[in-house]
Each structure stands twice: as structure tokens, then as C-alpha cells.
Design brief:
Helix content is 56%, strand content 6%. Strands 1-2 form a two-stranded antiparallel sheet. The protein has a two-stranded antiparallel sheet with strand order 3-4. β3 and β4 form a beta hairpin. α5 crosses α6.
């Protein structure tokens, strides 16, 4: 027997798995107000004179006046770096993109480039995620960032969304170093695939229909493996790290929510750096 979907009592078109802890009516994220235990609907909060209660996102973040500010800043940074690349030329690309390769010159001396050159080059793990060379590349990535990232920022809150984005970017870079260390790699795709993974986790957490996001994710994975000059390694690394971080954020128990959320971010970040360090050690050896 098919189970009937539960929808928000104020928005019948939105499925949800969350109920008000006082009246037990089903509520969607737009109708939730964080309480001492769980979430309450806005009517229950107003009835108990709870205007002092700070509205929270599903992940426990503060509800901001501009819920898309971080996404706008990320888009602006990518556009700014793209303009600088066009103005300065390939020299900036060579200084900021991601690759770890070592070789020998005609005298037999070993020469290393990228993060393999030394600790001073590890900034490439992050700067490569803000580099784009082709117009179609930055256009596609920034459209995806707005379509996927903006709603996710609204649901998670600024600080958690920012952590998710940057940890996913580092995770994507680490995967590239491990699986394709000699390939110059750039682009925000690793971080964006982390947002795709987080969106899937959010949809599952809220018991929404998973089919649209799974179809979209499947198409992107398919193109990652079939299009030429596309770093499937970075996409895979970002997807895995973003999914893990999102699970920690959205399924954290309320009693220890901050500890679990930020502990998960820190653990995934450290694990990504460890993978990168292993990859560099393999190249330099």
C-alpha cells in the first residue's frame, strides 16, 4: 500500500517530515521557528508570546535578511578572478591552478610544480576553485551555483553554507591530486558538485520527492565521464565531501548539533588535506 505524502499545513504543495512540537501539525522550512526542543509553527510561537525566539534554518543557522548573500559574493569573486585572468593572461592561470607534478631537467635534477613545489604552493587547493578560462565554463558553473547554491544557502544559513562550499572545493582538489596529479585543473565544479550532494541530502531529510535532484545529478555525473577535458576526479571528490558534510549538518542531533556539525566539517577538511598530502608524497617520491 502506498503511503500518503505529508504536506505542510500552510503550504499544501510542499511535502515535509517535520512537525510542530506543540500542535504536531506538519510544517515546511518557511514555517519553522527553532524552539528549545525541535521546531514550532509560527502560530504556536505567537500564541505563547514568543517574538523573542530567533528564527532558525533547518540546520540551526540564523535566518538572514538576505538569504542569498554568500552565493552572490561567491559569484562575484569568480567573475572578478575571470576578468583578471583575461587581463593578465596565462601567467595568472599558471600561478593559481591546481596540479602536482615532478620531473627532471636535462641535468637530471628533479623539478616540482604546483603543490608539489612545497608548502608555499598549497593555496592552489582553494584558488583553483575560483579559476575559469572559457566563457562557457564560467557561465555554466555560475548558473549552477545560483540555481543550486542560493536555495541551499537559505536552508542552511550563511556560515554552514560557506563551510560546505569551501570544504567541498578542497575535497575536489584533493581528489584531483590523488587521481590525476599531472593534469592542470581549474573551476568551481568540485564545490558545485558538493552543493548537488548536499541538496540530495536535504531533499531526503525533508522527505521530498528525490527524483528531480537524482536525475539532475545523474546527468551531471554522466557528462563528467563523457565530455572531453572535464575533471571527473574533482567532481567526484566534491560530491563525496559535500554529501558527508551535509549529512553531519542536517542529521545532527539537536542536543549536540553545533559539535556534530562543525566537527564533521573539520574532520572532512582534515581528511581532504591528508589525501592531498598523500598524493603529493606519491608524486615527489
Amino acid at each position: 500500500m502506498e503511503q500518503q505524502a505529508v504536506t505542510c499545513y500552510r503550504h499544501p504543495d510542499r511535502e515535509t517530515g517535520i512537525r510542530c512540537t506543540r500542535c504536531e501539525r506538519p510544517i515546511c522550512p518557511d514555517c519553522m521557528v527553532s524552539a528549545s526542543v525541535g521546531f514550532q509553527c509560527k502560530e504556536c510561537v505567537s500564541q505563547r508570546g514568543g517574538s523573542h525566539v530567533q528564527p532558525r534554518t533547518i540546520a540551526g543557522g540564523s535566518v538572514a535578511a538576505d538569504p542569498f548573500l554568500v552565493t552572490k559574493i561567491l559569484i562575484g569573486l569568480n567573475i572578478l578572478v575571470f576578468i583578471l585572468v583575461k587581463a593578465v593572461g596565462d601567467r595568472l592561470l599558471n600561478d593559481l591552478d591546481l596540479y602536482a607534478v615532478c620531473g627532471h631537467d636535462i641535468t637530471g635534477q628533479q623539478l616540482c610544480f604546483g603543490v608539489s613545489e612545497g608548502p608555499g604552493e598549497w593555496y592552489r587547493l582553494l584558488t583553483s576553485a575560483f579559476l575559469h578560462q572559457e566563457y562557457w565554463h564560467i557561465g555554466f558553473n555560475l548558473l549552477s551555483l545560483w540555481w543550486i547554491g542560493a536555495p541551499l544557502e537559505q536552508r542552511l544559513g550563511r556560515s554552514r553554507y560557506t563551510a560546505l562550499y569551501f570544504v567541498s572545493a578542497i575535497g575536489g582538489s584533493a581528489a584531483v591530486l590523488l587521481l590525476a596529479p599531472d593534469a592542470p585543473t581549474l573551476g568551481a565544479s568540485g564545490a558545485i558538485f558538493g552543493l548537488f550532494g548536499a541538496t540530495a541530502v536535504y531533499m531526503r531529510r525533508m522527505r521530498y520527492d528525490m527524483r528531480p535532484v537524482l536525475i539532475l545529478l545523474g546527468l551531471n555525473i554522466f557528462f563528467s565521464f563523457t565530455w572531453a577535458n572535464v575533471s571527473w576526479q574533482g567532481h567526484l571528490g566534491g560530491l563525496v565531501t559535500g554529501t558527508i558534510v551535509a549529512i553531519g549538518m542536517l542529521y545532527a542531533p539537536r542536543e549536540r548539533r553545533d559539535l556534530v556539525q562543525w566537527g564533521t566539517c573539520a574532520a572532512v577538511f582534515v581528511a581532504s588535506l591528508a589525501v592531498a598530502a598523500i598524493a603529493v608524497a606519491q608524486v615527489t617520491s
